[in-house]
């Protein structure tokens, strides 16, 4: 039994080669978006809340790191409390650079506006603000 646990522990123990930072881990001087408090470079997914809520997915960015970054993707609104339609095209514009006290080596966008292709059922607005800026 001890031999099995020892071998299992060897398999589960982290290896130094696997402990590399994620490819999009922010480096000093880079622009980031604080995605629910986590700094990300060119996020592919942006969450609008910590629990069941709509989120932006499959984002592709243009002009990242400039004064105005534009991302295009899909708004996924398929949670139990979310309004239909469940999937819509979305464009997000990030503007205005600031440096945060938390990590002054990174720059973040302070404004985020999302525009969806169709409004929520029963609504007319297709434009809304997302949290942006320092956490």
Structural key phrases:
135 residues; mainly beta; eight-stranded mixed beta sheet; 1 helix; elongated; disordered N terminus
List the helices and strands and how they pair.
Layout: H1 2-12, E1 31-35, E2 38-40, E3 46-47, E4 55-62, E5 68-76, E6 87-99, E7 107-116, E8 127-129
Question: Would you give an account of this structure?
Answer:
It is built from 1 helix and 8 strands, in the order αββββββββ. With 135 residues, the chain is mostly beta strands. Strands 1, 2, 3, 4, 5, 6, 7 and 8 form an 8-stranded mixed β-sheet that branches. The longest helix is centred in the first third of the chain and has 11 residues. Keywords: Signal. This is Secreted protein.
Our estimate of the beta-strand percent is: 35-45%
Biggest sheet details = 8 strands, mixed
Number of helices: 1
What do the pLDDT scores average to? 80
- The N- to C-terminal Cα distance equals 48 Å
Which residues sit in consecutive blocks of at least 5 with pLDDT less than 50?
1-21
Going by helix content, strand content and strand pairing, the class is mainly beta
**Strands, total number:** 8
- Helical residue percent? under 10%
Q: What coarse outline follows from CA principal-axis ratios?
A: elongated
Rg, please?
19 Å
Order of helices and strands: HEEEEEEEE
Counting structural domains, the number is 1
């Amino acid at each position: 039994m001890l031999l099995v646990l020892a071998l299992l522990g060897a398999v589960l123990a982290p290896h130094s080669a696997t402990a590399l930072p994620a490819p999009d881990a922010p480096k000093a001087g880079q622009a980031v978006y604080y995605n629910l408090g986590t700094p990300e470079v060119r996020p592919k997914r942006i969450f609008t809340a910590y629990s069941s809520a709509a989120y932006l997915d499959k984002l592709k960015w243009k002009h990242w790191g400039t004064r105005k970054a534009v991302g295009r993707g899909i708004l996924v609104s398929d949670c139990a409390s979310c309004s239909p339609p469940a999937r819509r095209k979305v464009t997000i514009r990030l503007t205005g650079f600031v440096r945060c006290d938390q990590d002054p080596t990174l720059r973040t966008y302070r404004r985020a506006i999302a525009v969806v292709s169709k409004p929520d059922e029963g609504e007319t607005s297709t434009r809304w603000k997302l949290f942006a800026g320092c956490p």
